[in-house]
Amino acid sequence: MRHFFRRKSSCQIAKDRLKILLISDRVNCSPEIMELIKTDIAKVLSKYMKIDSENMEIQINTKGSKGRGNKMPSLYANIPIVDVSAQDVAK
Q: What is the pLDDT of residues 54-91, one digit of tens each?
């Protein structure tokens, strides 16, 4: 239970900020937009299950599409699930 109330170290905060900056640079997306995306995803998933939003990771990678030279961005999310029992689905 202490895990939920533990503060991140300044080192971890700096790493998180650097990750966000690198990701946003790859796809021409500002760090503010990346944080909004992360917040929105956490809000939607929290309707259906309990997640650890402090430790979720969002990445945008670019990969070439099949048969073409165009690179398309893909969103990857690593979201720790604390409890899968249904939350308040009726909202």
A: 888 887 776 666 656 666 777 888 999 999 875 554 44
Query: Which has the closest alpha carbon to 42: 57, 32, 29?
Result: 57
Contacts of 72 (CB under 8 A, 6+ apart): 62, 63, 64, 65
Q: Is the pTM of this model over 0.85?
A: no
Residue 1: other Cβ atoms inside 10 A:
4
- Residue 34 near residue 21, CB atoms below 8 Å: no
* CA distances from residue 56 to 23, 44, 61, 65, 66 in whole angstroms, order as listed: 15, 14, 16, 27, 29
pLDDT band with cut points at 50, 70 and 90 for residue 1:
very low
Task: Say which DSSP state 9 is in.
Answer: P
- The dihedral of CA 62, 13, 56, 30: what is its sign? negative
For the chain, the first-to-last Cα distance in angstroms comes to: 27
